[in-house]
């Protein structure tokens, strides 16, 4: 399942940030784990490259906050990121429908 998650990681991040205003990396990994009852566990090695790519594409803003003696990076959607979230969720939904039709055609909704 981890390989399937890799292709949807950016969509997952955009969706979570749209629901939570701003989050830091570890918080994102824990939220995904919680929402999927442990079935999907995102590693830092997968998450941070995805966050950096989204930031470089102008979809995320980063806010660095000093927490005690540690610096914590919070990620937040830009206006462009909010629009892209809608596009990526539509794409994912269409992909899931297509896969359902392929795997189990007699139960397809269309």
From TrEMBL:
Pfam families: PadR. Transmembrane segments: none annotated. Residues 13-84 form the Transcription regulator PadR N-terminal domain. This is PadR family transcriptional regulator.
């Amino acid at each position: 399942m981890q390989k399937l998650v890799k292709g949807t990681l950016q969509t997952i991040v955009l969706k979570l940030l749209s629901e939570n205003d701003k989050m830091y990396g570890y918080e994102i990994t824990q939220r995904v784990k919680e929402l999927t009852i442990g079935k999907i566990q995102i590693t830092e090695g997968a998450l941070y490259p995805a966050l950096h790519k989204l930031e470089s594409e102008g979809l995320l803003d980063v806010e660095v906050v000093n927490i005690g003696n540690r610096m914590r990076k919070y990620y937040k959607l830009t206006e462009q990121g909010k629009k892209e979230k809608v596009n990526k969720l539509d794409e994912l939904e269409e992909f899931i429908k297509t896969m359902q039709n392929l795997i189990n055609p007699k139960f397809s909704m269309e």
